[in-house]
Amino acid sequence: MAEKTGATILDKIVKHKLTEIAEARARVPISRFEEEDLFHRECYSLREFVLSPEKTGIIAEFKRASPSKGIINDQVSAANVTQGYADAGASALSVLTDSQFFGGRINDLLQAREANTIPILRKEFILDEYQIIEAKAIGADIILLIAAILTPESIAKFANTAKNLGLSVLLEVHNQEELERSVCDDLDAVGVNNRNLADFSVSLQHSYDLVNLIPDNFLKISESGISDPKTIRDLKQAGFNGFLIGENFMREANPGEAMKDFVAQINA
Ligand SMILES: O=C(O)c1ccccc1NCC(=O)[C@H](O)[C@H](O)COP(=O)(O)O
User: 34: CA distance to ligand 1 center in Å?
Assistant: First the structure.
């Protein structure tokens, strides 16, 4: 089991998540996940889709709510929104499965999987290998490992488990210290979260400060607080390959159309 450190909201999320995992383990054994058809499918590669010249590099997130904003949009379906994102050129999708803090559902990811043929990130607070095996069984292609809530040993172990299942691994860091202690061989991508998870302040400067410290063999992803198409040009120029965007699209009645308009403006 991973150890926790860090900020207040993360403390609350981790505490709740550990209880949730213990309950899930008692309810659904791992052997059940291994029986699912989705568990045996071949995953889409994050690297391939993010680097595809036909895609935008955007990882578009289905996010109903968040601790920083409360409800963002609870009037839309995961199937419709994620299909709209894929039509708008998303390289990958991100679907929150945490219900307590983000209003997400496992069923949202199942719906997104059914509707799309691009990689899907299971956006979760992973603290246990159980959640990684579950991610594969519900149709995810990518898992997120958050440096702020995991030890370097847990990150290396979880990344290795994910790779053995054919999943891509995105490590999320917020500062240089987290980056230096957490990087390991089995990662595919390193994401810089521009949101400070302690006070929710957002600054793109975190991305610019860290981009050159991320080893070049990993995809470089800038995460959170992106709302201006011009920012994508600047982040690309700085060396980023991918851009994780949630709220800017989700706060609109039609997130897929919002993404289409955004993409049209990137190179306008
Ligand atoms: O979004 C939050 O309020 C939040 C709070 C605590 C932990 C994580 C949180 N967000 C997770 C994310 O990483 C974002 O959903 C993702 O990067 C997209 O960000 P945005 O485009 O700003 O919605």
Answer: 30
Residue-range domains of the chain with CATH: 8-266 (3.20.20.70)
Query: Ligand 1 pocket: which residues have CB below 6 Å?
Result: 9, 61, 63, 66-68, 193, 195, 197, 200, 223-226, 244-248
pLDDT digits (tens, 9 = 90+) for 34-73: 999 999 999 999 999 999 999 999 999 999 999 999 999 9
Q: Are 172 and 214 contacting, i.e. CB atoms less than 8 angstroms apart?
A: no
Strand residue runs (E) in 69-138: 70-71, 92-96, 120-123
Question: What tens digit of pLDDT does each residue of 94-108 get?
Answer: 999 999 999 999 999
- Nearest residue (by CA) to ligand 1, atom 14, is 224
Going by CA atoms, what residue is nearest to atom 19 of ligand 1? 224
Q: How far, in Å, is the centroid of ligand 1 from the Cα of 169?
A: 18
> Which phi and psi angles does 112 have, rounded to 5°?
-65, -40
CA angle 221/223/224 to nearest 5° reads 165
Question: Rounded distance, CA 168 to CA 43, Å?
Answer: 8
